[in-house]
Sequence to fold (424 residues):
Amino acid sequence: MKKSRTVAHPVVVESPRHLPLVNLLVDARTELFELAVRSGLKVLESMLEEDRTAVCGPRYAHLAERRASRAGTVRSEVVLGGRKVAVRRPRVRADGQEVPLPTFQAMADVDPLDRRVVEQMLVGVATRRYARSLEPVPATLTSRGTSKSAVSRRFVAKTAAQLTAWQTASLEEFDLVGLLIDGVHIGEHCLIVALGIAADGQKHALGLWDGSTENARVCQDLLANLQGRGLRTDRSLLVILDGSKALRKAVRTIFGEAALVQRCQVHKMRNVLEYLSDRDRPWAQAILRRAYQATEVKTAQRRLVDLARRLETEYPSAAESVREGLDETLTVLTLKLSPRLRRSLATTNAAESLISRTRLVKRNVKRWRGGQMMLRWMAAGILEAVKGFRRLKGYADMPTLVNGLRARDRQLGLVAPEGDRQVA
Fold:
């Protein structure tokens, strides 16, 4: 007898299915945002109707003292998520004229849209990609204002207004005791930046000027602008410069004896070391640092004079650079400040730090179209950087600086109003 064969079929075990959770989450997020937008617009409609009711009174009510009446709706736009969105606006008329609704005026204000455009540009979003940087809105909504040309127009208008407002703002409210001036080259232009130090250690971006080079005329125009806006030139002011002769001449012209000039020690060290070979730079740099870290003026002068004498034979240009403006590199030592504050005021690092923050802002600019465009972008970058300003390092010793400057006023016979008293 033949035995029947039983063929065993392999059991097919289905692999577990992996749901596209990422896509589901993205879709859920989009739908949630669209729901929030639709709900927000419903709330807006209710608020607009409440405004109309407050002006016209309840619908269908007979009010003898009624002064305004409903006039249907009209297609309008409000700013939402960085774009303009079409809505139906309730209308109210009184004495033959349109009556504005407060809620709609607040929502239709274009300034929030302008601010959004500027913020997006400053963080590196290109104009052609602006629309992609925004959250999506329901397809049923009609929107505009996100095209490359519209974004560009808004950015230009907003930054131009910012620049004008900044360059004309009064400085009388700032009790400035320090002024840092530094320049940055962009293409064939040189932009001069002024940074003020108040008596409480707060830093204030004061102005920006444009020229082909860092010449005396440009610098003088900047300082004259600051003077015209309220910067006092009748009392001592610590002016920290990078060593430019043009800047020094302009400061002397505008401030006269009131300017107590401090030459940037970092720039001076850099200039001296550029004359030396790689072999001789380390020991010369060490001497310069010891001189600038000294607590007594005579000690620092002796070390610098000795360095110049050692360099005289082999590097006469370096020796001359050490001697040039030697006393002005040690001005802060004469004020008897704390080491921390003295280091902060011995260089233009604070102004250079401000300028360096603008590089991130203007990195997306492929081609500069004139000085006005440079000024707008630099001003926008500086005003953005100002938001993160902190007080000067060592600000707790600012009263010592103020008292030293006021003592200098009395010594030189400069005008000192009754309010310019010593700070405790």
About this structure: Residues 21-56 form the longest helix (36 residues). The CA atoms of residues 50 and 58 lie 9 Å apart.
